[in-house]
Design a protein that fits this description.
Blueprint (H helix, E strand, L loop, with lengths): L1 E9 L10 H23 L14 E5 L7 E9 L1 H7 L4 H16 L9 H7 L5 H8 L1 H7 L1 H5 L4 E6 L3 E6 L1 H7 L2 E2 L4 E10 L6 E5 L4 E7 L5 H15 L6 E9 L5 E11 L3
Parallel strand pairs: 9-11
Antiparallel strand pairs: 1-3, 1-4, 2-3, 4-5, 6-10, 7-8, 7-10, 8-9, 10-11
Helix pairs in contact: 1-6, 3-5
């Protein structure tokens, strides 16, 4: 089964069918990486991988640009076993719902899933959608590359005869252009969700009265990771479960607090 969508660049030289060659190559690479990560997760029941490699079960094709504009047609060709597993009657609607949900999360927008297939993934205990947003972060930044150079540049992802899925502009580019605050602070609170395998989770920060995402620095020890699991388990049982995260803030180019990078975990004495 083949699914098609259009990627269109508008503004500046793109209106005359031109893009800077370096910007175009980086954007195309970002598109390829984002599609690889997204399609892999869709085919493999929400399994997230950070590295963008070829997808087993589907191929992605790029068609030549159309004359007089900078618009390209992309085809995602799913093989027969994948179509059979997911279901011929649901795969198209489910994939576009999945792509819109995950890509909207990655660029700071929101989309509520509308298909049973995607709703099933969205209601899992594991914090899938936030982790997927991080997995797509660098590829989305690359996809935005032409917007960095042109004042009024926008990129539209749309389905032929159906309509737009996602629109990228300077605001979404700022969201995916993150910076790491160097100061490390102590945060008291509870783990609300945590993926033991990936190290991604969500943490209720007492002083902020908010639940925010976190991911782990590679130096976090197994013992410290165990404290994260313990905090989540105790919270689920109605106990205190307070711990201290030693973490820095990850800030978007729009100045928003996006998540915490955790460097250490300690028991709380409070």
């Amino acid at each position: 089964m083949d699914l098609n969508f259009k990627i269109s660049y508008s503004g500046g030289p793109a209106d005359n069918g031109l893009l800077d060659i370096y910007d175009a190559s980086v954007s195309t690479r970002g598109l390829a990486r984002a599609l690889s990560i997204t399609t892999h997760a869709f085919i493999n029941d929400g399994q997230i991988r950070q590295r963008a490699e070829r997808v087993a079960g589907a191929k992605v094709y790029l068609h030549p640009p159309r004359h007089g504009s900078f618009e390209e047609l992309v085809t995602i060709a799913f093989n027969d076993p994948v179509v059979t597993t997911i279901g011929t009657s649901v795969i198209a609607a489910a994939f576009w719902d999945f792509l819109k949900w995950t890509w909207s999360e990655a660029v700071g927008q929101s989309h509520q899933p509308t298909t049973p297939f995607v709703n099933r993934i969205s209601t899992r205990v594991e914090p899938f959608i936030g982790e997927m947003g991080i997995a797509l972060e660098s590829s989305m930044e690359e996809l935005h590359r032409p917007i960095q150079s042109v004042q009024n540049m926008e990129i539209s992802i749309s389905r032929p005869r159906v309509g737009e899925i996602v629109r990228l502009d300077h605001s979404t580019r700022a969201y995916v252009s993150i910076r790491d605050e160097e100061d490390v602070e102590d945060l008291v609170g509870n783990v609300t969700k945590y993926n033991i395998l990936s190290g991604y989770g969500r943490f209720f920060v007492d002083v902020l009265n908010r639940t925010l995402p976190f991911d782990l620095h590679h130096d976090v020890s197994p013992g410290e990771k165990a404290l994260l699991t313990k905090s989540m388990d105790e919270r689920n049982r109605g106990l205190d479960g307070k711990i201290i995260l030693r973490a820095s803030r990850i800030i978007t180019g729009r100045g928003e607090l996006k998540r915490f990078k955790v460097y250490g975990v300690e028991p709380s004495m409070i």
